[in-house]
Amino acid sequence: MNLRKQFYIITCLTLFLVLLSPVIYGKQSKNIQEFDMSLVEITDPYYINAFDKNVEYLLRLDPERLLVGFRAVSDGLDPGSTNLFAKYGVNLYGGWEDGWSLLRGHTMGHYLTAMAQAYKQTEVADPKLNQEIKEKIDYTVEQLKLFQDKSTNGYIFASPEKHFDIIEGKATGPTWVPWYTMHKIIMGLVDVKKYVGNEIALEVASKLGDWAYNRTSTWDDFLQRKVLNVEYGGMNDALYELYKFTNEPKHLAAAHAFDEDSLFNFIIQGRNVLVNKHANTQIPKFIGALNRYRVLGEEESFYFDAAEKLWAMVIEHHSYVTGGFSENECFREPGRLDGTRTNVNNESCNAYNMLKLTRELFRVTGDVKYADFYERLFINEIMASQNPVTGMTTYFKPMGTGYFKSYGKPFNSFWCCTGTGMENFTQLNNSIYFHTDTELYVNLYLSSKLNWKEKGLVLSQQAEIPNTDRVTFVIDNAPKEKLKIKFRIPEWLAKGYDVKVQLNGEELAKGNMVSYFDVERVWNSGDIIEITLPMEVQVSRLPDNQDVVAFTYGPVTLSAGLGKERMIVTGHNASEKPTIPKGVNIKDYIIIHDSTIENWLENIESNLVKTPGKVEFTLRNTDEDDNLKFTPYYLEHEQRYGIYFSLAALDSSEYQRIILERKQRDKKEDATIDVVLVTNDQYELVHNLRGNSSGGSHGGYNYRHVHGSRTGEGWFSYDMSVDPSVTNFINTKYYSGDVGRTFNVYVDDKLLVEETIRSQTPTGFYDVMYEIPAEWVQGKRKVTVKFANRGSSYVGGVFDSVSILKDFNTNADMDSIIINGTKAQLTGNTYTFKVTNKDNMVMAKFTPVEKNTLVYLDNVLIDDTELRKVVLKDGITSINIRLVAEDEKTEKYYQFNIIR
């Protein structure tokens, strides 16, 4: 059946359903309801500050600057090529809203949603602020309506409609993700209707819904697949939300055009097709799927199943201890988490969308696992993403040890995560409590006040978890009828300790509990419920490396501060990322003393000890005793940190592996002129990927290749930066399993090398370096690197990345050996130090001239950034020292004699 017929049938059926009931909920749905945000007041000072900082920022934004792109388009102009200030007296904002950005306009949708939520939250608490917010919302919506009134088809946007034609293949030119931006705009308008009651917003959204229907109803199956192959946000979700207000069959049909059933089917079957896909592209699709189920009911349970299975897949195979996920915005191999800990993990938009999906799954099922995960993600990802001083939010939250959080700028970033950040901190109170007709769910232990007007219940909660394990509830005003209150029993409870529940000082229950503890009775004003929820340090290990661990205490992930030295950020596509500059030494491992790793972890309460009166923990029986201080990660700001640390025994093979991998990573980063991560859509877009290749994943690496062709016309290429002042190399990775494949590598269409894949390493993967002749890069800033057929063979696969590197350093010299603070003397290649006391050991530091040089003492690779204990013999203690330069060929040998 073609898509146009499907639209016609859906429209007719939907009209019949609408006549019966505007919104139908699934038969198995618990239909758990949210509270109006005006009825829940947060009283925790830290969370109040988070809300206040966010609202202050929202009110600093000038609606005119957010509107001017829309204004220009309504006048038939392209904001990207128009002097807006000369025409309108106002410019676009910077960053992703600027003229160069084809995502401009996305912030408008986030702004409308955030302002609408802020309006609802201040409706009772602060009438003056509430009115100020409303005036800005009303003005913005009125202007959007004026722009729409000038349109012949209901279209409003901050870029010309041609961008949607380009996505459909009906026009040519550059574009990004216009449907993604349209999702934000429609959802923002619907939220203004939902929270503010603004009918004009609904009118504008409805006309945009009609516009979407008129476009999507022309798609055949091929065109639908083509469009949905480009990120479209949660267009299905936005249009289902719109339909709840309009009951317009066309809006329902348009929403369904964005339901990616083939993807949903794979996930339901348990096929993890997420690998290498852009993570934040995927989650909103499943939020929309779940919304379809909520709207149409049990006959659409396929969509509920898809959302449920996706949630489980992400949690079980892709998530870190904080609940966050993604590396460089993408899903990686299932269970490959240590191998993908970097400075670009855990995009904040992912947490925003996963929180939304989790919340709605809870509302449908009532399953406590969703409430448990919501708490983990809410505290350790959402609350961790905002700077409490500036109110600005993060793009990434690195899981690589030694990095730090970097925050957007108020008027020059406007990343996707800036927008979702606006929304996050105006909805902090929306999931503390839920209800049915007869039950109240307490899902989050967060100081707050609930006014359930319908039942006549006023409930106050005082909670300071993780500072204390006791939570107190007071019935300030009691309902007349019996009411069941369901208190969540968290998954993080200390093992072997009892939960205690008291009512007015008398014990109601004590023991090991799961899920919820229900108290059902006729309540009295002044009733006090006290719940004790024991906490303990718990260990989280990574599936691909069990010796890499993180620690939690109660609901909070712990991190250790690692200093503030040279906290420099660098550009990353259109955002930014934190760095560890040359000369900044980060120790990302912990040496265990006098125990095995397993025994040390089994006794974690004795080995990670709480400071009395603080949520602070220090190590015992390690080389970092009393040095590292572990505190709640969500409070970690403006310094380097580590969540995950490798555990190792001194001089063990694991210890040496950690050092070697760090040195190799650092030397490559220092030598990198340019890099493209293969199959990463953003990197490949920036580097102008061309050709007829395809991508995949194997052995923990992404790859790109071209199938063998009789015509010999298979190829792909990247445009890459070079530096004519140095020797330039092409670096990439091949797989021995492709042995025998033959292809050529070109630079600006000049043949550089005829390559044949060989069987080389035990793991199957090996790196290659191709030197580019100096005259080929002379006077150039970029070259085109092309991989192409030689005969009918496959091209590649090319794995992991393609880099342009400068030559590795050949300096293998020792800079100094310091013994107990004093420099050893060097004569020739022999260092000598005399010990004048009777100590049987000294502390030594062996420092090479170049930081990435490998230092071996008696064939043991050491960490040259750390002091090392040397046990002395009587007479002369001799140590053989070998240094290996970055090029892994140049070596230098020294003798070190300590005379005692």
Core attributes:
single chain, 900 residues, alpha+beta, Immunoglobulin-like, Jelly Rolls, nine-stranded mixed beta sheet, seven-stranded antiparallel beta sheet, globular
Tally of DSSP helical segments: 23
Give the CA-based shape: globular
Q: Structural class from helices and strands?
A: alpha+beta
Q: Span from first to last CA?
A: 90 Å
User: Low-confidence runs (pLDDT<50, min 5 residues)?
Assistant: 1-27
E-strand count? 44
Radius of gyration: 30 Å
Topology, element by element:
Blueprint: H1 3-20, E1 33-34, E2 40-42, H2 45-60, H3 63-74, H4 84-88, H5 106-125, H6 127-149, H7 162-167, H8 178-196, H9 199-216, H10 221-228, H11 235-246, H12 249-257, H13 261-268, H14 279-296, H15 301-317, H16 348-365, H17 368-382, H18 416-424, E3 433-435, E4 439-442, E5 448-452, E6 457-463, E7 470-477, E8 483-488, E9 499-503, E10 506-511, E11 516-521, E12 528-532, E13 537-542, E14 545-553, E15 556-561, E16 569-572, E17 575-578, E18 589-591, H19 597-602, H20 604-607, E19 608-610, E20 617-619, E21 629-632, E22 641-642, E23 645-648, H21 653-671, E24 672-677, H22 681-686, E25 690-691, E26 694-698, E27 701-706, E28 715-721, E29 728-735, E30 742-747, E31 750-756, E32 765-772, H23 774-777, E33 782-789, E34 795-806, E35 814-819, E36 822-823, E37 825-827, E38 830-834, E39 841-848, E40 854-857, E41 860-861, E42 868-871, E43 876-884, E44 891-899
Parallel strand pairs: 4-8, 18-23, 38-44
Antiparallel strand pairs: 1-3, 2-5, 3-4, 5-6, 6-7, 7-12, 8-11, 9-10, 9-12, 13-14, 14-15, 14-23, 15-21, 15-22, 16-17, 19-20, 20-21, 24-34, 25-28, 26-27, 27-34, 28-33, 29-32, 29-34, 30-31, 30-33, 35-36, 35-39, 37-38, 39-42, 40-41, 40-43, 43-44
